[in-house]
Write a structure and sequence with these properties.
This protein is an alpha+beta fold. The protein contains seven helices and ten strands. The protein has a four-stranded antiparallel β-sheet with strand order 1-6-7-5, with helices on one face. Strands 2-3-4-8 form a four-stranded antiparallel β-sheet, with helices on one face. A two-stranded antiparallel ribbon has the order 9-10. α1 packs across α7 (about 195-215) and α6 packs across α7. The longest helix is centred in the last third of the chain and has 23 residues, at about 195-215. The radius of gyration is 20 Å and the shape is elongated. Mean pLDDT is about 90; it is low at about 230-235. It binds a DNA duplex through loops.
Length: about 270
DNA sequence: ATCGCCTCCTGCGCGC
DNA sequence: TGCGCGCAGGAGGCGA
């Protein structure tokens, strides 16, 4: 399940292979992922060069002079650079082919990913327009998180996973950040103190930065078929560790469902 | 305005 | 050993 570090790693991995490259053909092998892949891309893209590769939240934005390809990996998607003669795998849904003889392929078994086209400023696209700040930007800090949570009755875990508040904090890192911050995931967001919000914001940044650094070590894997790109060994303290002992206090890690999502925490450390 | 539930899809794990 | 069932999960959309 790509979290923000995997998406950032993917973006960094594909960028040097595709930026400034001219698209010679595109392949739409599956007409509909989360949404239909615009058929008009066949007219928009060939003959045009990629001018930029950016990330916003978990979207990878592939820029052209006349518009932007907005892509999302969903929960099982991955992108890979390969040669056009490489056999199509099951779930290879979409590909850009370049004049320098490479392809960028989107692979996504769950089909929760997306490929869309934005003519104007992609930040104004319906899917991006209302997103909150990037967690690694300066504007996201404890004060911001505190202000954005006053009066909120939703749990702190759902709060930090709410993309209107802050983007890119997925289910795994939400549990992990709350553990490091000693905050109970079910605590109402509006009842977390300013000081603890600072701790939480700091921990979110630390976890994401560390994961991105580790993801960087797998960048070589983006060329050809070596392994799954962007997935790195993660040191997780609570996620997926129900019934195991807390690394800090040896209490038994609990698992609950919160907002339809599995949630892990230490009932002793987190209050 | 907020919140919580539903939905998309398929691989996988579990139980028998 | 093989089969079938049910769940997980990102995030938009909708109903309350």
């Amino acid at each position: 399940m790509p979290e923000l570090p995997e998406v950032e790693t993917t973006k960094r991995g594909i960028e040097p292979h595709i930026v400034k490259r001219k698209v010679s053909a595109i392949h739409i092998r599956t007409p509909k992922l989360r949404w239909p892949i615009p058929r008009a891309l066949k007219n928009h893209l060939p003959g045009n060069a990629i001018t930029s590769v950016r990330r916003r939240a978990k979207y990878i934005l592939i820029g052209f002079e006349h518009g932007t390809l907005i892509t999302h990996l969903g929960m099982s998607g991955s992108m890979r650079i390969c040669t056009p003669d490489r056999t199509w795998r099951k779930h290879d849904h979409f590909a850009l082919e370049f004049s320098h003889g490479k392809q960028l392929r989107l692979h996504d078994p769950r089909k929760f990913g997306s490929v869309l086209w934005s003519k104007g400023d992609p930040e104004k696209h319906k899917l991006l327009a209302k997103l909150g700040p990037e967690p690694l930007h300066e504007e996201f800090d404890g004060d911001y998180l505190y202000r954005a949570s006053r009066g909120r009755k939703a749990s702190i875990k759902q709060h930090i996973m709410n993309h209107h508040i802050v983007v890119g904090v997925g289910n795994i890192y939400a549990s992990e950040a709350l553990f490091l911050s000693a905050i109970h995931p079910k605590r109402a967001a509006g009842r977390v103190s300013r000081q603890r919000m600072h701790t939480l914001a700091d921990n979110i940044k630390i976890i994401l930065r560390r994961s991105i650094e580790q993801g960087g070590t797998t960048l070589n894997d983006f060329l050809n078929e070596n392994g799954e790109p962007g997935y790195f060994a993660q040191q997780l303290n609570v996620y997926g560790r129900a019934a195991e002992k807390c690394v800090s206090c040896k209490s038994v890690i609990k698992s609950i469902i919160l907002g339809q999502r599995s949630t892990f925490y230490c009932p002793n450390c987190q209050r």
